[in-house]
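Re: weekly structure request thread

Next one in the queue (633 aa):
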Amino acid sequence: MRMMLNNIYKLFILVLCSYLMGVSNEGMSYSLTIDKKEIKDDDVIIKLKAEIDIEKGYYIQSCDPELSLSPTSFEWFDSSVFINLGHMIEPKPELKYDKSLDMNIGKHYNDMELIQRVIPKDNILPGEYNLSGEFLYQICDSTRCIPYYDEINFIVKISDYNNYEGSLWDKVYGMLGSFFVAFIAGLIAIITPCVFPMIPMTVAFFAKGSKKATKDSIKQGLIFGLSIIVIFMVVGILFSFVFGAADLANQMATSAIANIIFAIIFLVFAISFFGYFEIQIPTKFLNKINKKADGGGLIGTFFMALTLVLVSFSCTAPIVGTVMIDAVSGDIIKPIIVMLGFSLAFAIPFSLFAIFPSWLENLPQSGGWLNSVKIVLGFLELALCIKFLSMPDQAYHWGLLSREVFLFIWIIIFAAMGFYLIGLIKFKNDSDGPISFGFVRLSLTVITFSFCIYMGYGLYGKSVPALAGIIPPYKSSEKTIGDCSDTIKYSDILHLPHGLKGYFDYDEGKSCALSLDKPLFLDFTGHACFNCRRMEENVWVDSTVKQILEEDYIIIALYVDDKTSLSEESEYKTIGKKNFNFQVDQFNSNAQPFYVLLDPRDGKLLIEPKAYDTNIESFIEFLDIGKDEYYVK
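Done, posted below.
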């Protein structure tokens, strides 16, 4: 499996001397350095760089054997350890026709940089190795060429290195993030009015009047907690089978019907949390389950756990529904991981209090604060309702929830939550007494109003990177233009961030790349892609990244979830369907963001594609290697 480990033990190269040598000859001087290690096609690569200063009136010849009788190159003495990778990478030389040779000669007149990559052989053992060879070049003027053969030596240390594929780490980090979000959601569920009062009732069932831990209480407490986890995990497994298909999840992410249904669900959850009705399991069904719990033993303990889950359904259903809908991402494991995190957090307090009944004395008393927790969750559910409505709005280009409208509605929602926290707004189940401003309530009030102020900056067109991927992206009033034409397909509905030029159709962008002799930067993205917006707001915004994309690549943004209809002649119904199938068929990937550097001349990869990675230096290196590989061909 590509996403799993690919050769756990890799080779990591530590260069012992970064500055190798500096040489000065008549007409030219240079220095050789070793750049940091690179990984390409799962191999560790050393990059040797020659920075050359050429004096006026002199030149050196090209590295390309077809453009020179004496190409500039590195030659290695020992081929048993390292492999030479292709030609030198050089700037584009000036071509001068030589009558006596009847051929074009490539010449470099200006300061330049040459790069050579070498790779250790697969069977090389850890240790220190000497990489030695010669730097071959000619310094020429209008009358003569003088050849040079400079010896070069440097030492590298090769050691075992556990190198996991970036895509796997991205997946692992994503899973861990989902797990901890669900874990926190489980802890929040504990302090809701439907669950918190159940703790002493459950403990009384197991402790039977004793305040000390006994063998029976420990056994039953553990079985009780495990039963809760099993019940929630079953829900997660069912979700994974129903929503685990990548194509289904991709369609649902921006489907108008699915997102409107989700929005209605969250609206219902919000109204329920506000206290206007309760989501309940039928009483007859609850009574039947409760009778089985009275039977005692292992089965009785399991049904006691099931009773708890069902009785607390009115509070846990909205929270579980929130984290599970968020888990619908085409990954069959994610819903299971989410429910594991939620159920673990939910089960631990019940098990601990069942084992140690005396801890109950330290629990805070039930009161109005429990209802406040529900109300705050109701405001959050209301905000999520707007979030889900914005997804199809972007994919179908309805134009109802622009960035400014979205932010304005969210400011109203969170401002109302702040006013509730300070007591200016009341709900039907709130206590009539004065509000007690403890540390938690006061801190949450300050955070809420600060968040409203932060969103206010976005109303005036300023960047709010913390909300990238949540709120609709900023869209300039000007259409996106391309490097070859100001009129490009879909530029009336699709946009590139930060004023970048580019295309939204592969064939159109490829045609431009061929005409300008530039490599392609394919950006597989989506309207509902949270990490895509994070990359654009945190990586693409970097001045160096932006400059490389503008000057050295032809950008093609391929939206995999756009619902714009294609012509009847097309085998695909929408732009998104066409781009999604292109990504899966050509690159065996269905996740976004997914960045591909491609040679438009033969359609081959210049470097292994890159997924979500907010390390700016890593992204710059990715772009630089792709550019170098393109021009060496």
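Residues 1-20, 36-43, 160-168 have pLDDT under 50 and may be disordered. The first helix runs from residue 166 to 190.
Next request, please.
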